[in-house]
Amino acid sequence: MRMYDLILKKRNGEELTKEEIDFIISGYVQGEIPDYQISTFLMAVYFRGMTKQEISNLTLSFVHSGDVVDLSSIEGIKVDKHSTGGVGDKISLIIIPLVASLGIPVAKMSGRGLGHTGGTIDKLESIEGFRTELDSSEFIHNVNTYKMAIVGQTANLTPADKKIYALRDVTATVDSIPLIASSIMSKKIASGSDAIVLDVKVGSGAFMKSIDDAEELARTMVDIGKSLNRKTIAVLTNMDQPLGHEVGNANEIKEVIDVLSNKGAEDETTIALTIASHMAVLGGAYNDFDSAFRVLKAKIENGEAINKFKEFIKIQGGNPEVVDHPELLPQAKHHIEIKASSSGYITSINAESIGISAMLLGAGRRTKEDKIDFAAGITLTKKIGDKVDVGETICVLHTNLENTNEAQNIAKEAFRISEEKPAPVKYVYKVIQ
């Protein structure tokens, strides 16, 4: 088997066999196939696409390139959740205690952020003492006993995907649906889940800007799950503005507390309940979505959800007092108000711009080596559809930095104000099963 022939085959639009895909992936990981040939192969995939079977085989090749987590000693159906990423996306932290409160095991592996803001792990580490490095026995004990645990992803999970993603990033082949889908699903399969709910973001702050593209990606990932005997559902959700009111790390934890205390923003509460309800059905707690939704909503209203979050913090070494005293979370020295330059209604908020502004304030990373400032972030005081007067505060920047002119300008430009009130925002577009 020669790499030249396989590149030619894919360039001509022919279907590669499982053996041929395994040869490509294992050869690249072992250093037997050079970057320039893999780059050419990725470009051929970008233009020619892949069949469902090819995508499934590519996913499996990624999975078997490294560690595969064994969760068989955890009782029950392990349901995982994945988001394609957005600004202010704290849904994972809301659904962990919610789903666990139903007795469904949530054994979650999450990563750190690279870009706009921190990842789920970074956000949790803004809580004093919270540990995300658990050994396997403690991780499994926590899930079996409390139905929830979270750890950082193992370094050897899908190493082929990590290596190929780095190459995609510099060869203009990131936005290929077969490559995106296999990358995401390989990590979920390798993490040992039995069922998967995918939160596919759509809009200005998402990777997929249109509903059609997001639906194509969602269907591709659901097909992969089905082909690999994993129950999989994808939910298309709105990311045309940041989710909720908070962007950052410590301030997103504060907002998680608000949502679970029945004081959260409507958009993220609705999306979190939707994702959690689908997880409840896949996990076998309920037969239908509506019943699960009603019960989970009640758990937020009666205080059970926030008490479960306190327990979650405590069992991982964090200080649960932050729930009742969020001022214990890291606080920034500077709070800069951005004012509206005209009166009217907020018609759009460019989520990506808000994310970039937050990163410039210290809330995110440009490179893997950058240190995150947990206190940095942005509070949106106005959302799409809200009325605003000239000179009124539309957002507040939180930072420990002295020079924030660029971040201020980007944040202000993210808002669009018009005299005409926009149509109501839809939070969940559709469900793909």
UniProtKB/TrEMBL annotation:
Enzyme Commission code: 2.4.2.2
Stored Gene3D superfamilies: Nucleoside phosphorylase/phosphoribosyltransferase catalytic domain (3.40.1030.10), Pyrimidine nucleoside phosphorylase-like, C-terminal domain (3.90.1170.30), Transferase, Pyrimidine Nucleoside Phosphorylase, Chain C (1.20.970.10)
Keyword entries, A-Z: Glycosyltransferase, Transferase
GO cellular component assignments: cytosol
A biological-process GO annotation: pyrimidine nucleobase metabolic process
Domain Pyrimidine nucleoside phosphorylase C-terminal per the UniProt entry, residue ranges: 345-418
Coiled-coil annotated residue ranges, if any: none
Molecular function in Gene Ontology: 1,4-alpha-oligoglucan phosphorylase activity; thymidine phosphorylase activity
Claim: Transferase is one of the keywords in the record: yes
Record's catalysed reaction(s): 2'-deoxyuridine + phosphate = 2-deoxy-alpha-D-ribose 1-phosphate + uracil; uridine + phosphate = alpha-D-ribose 1-phosphate + uracil; thymidine + phosphate = 2-deoxy-alpha-D-ribose 1-phosphate + thymine
Any matching Pfam family: PYNP_C
Complex and partners: Homodimer.
Function: Catalyzes phosphorolysis of the pyrimidine nucleosides uridine, thymidine and 2'-deoxyuridine with the formation of the corresponding pyrimidine base and ribose-1-phosphate.
Protein name listed in UniProt: Pyrimidine-nucleoside phosphorylase
Source organism of this protein record: Defluviitalea raffinosedens
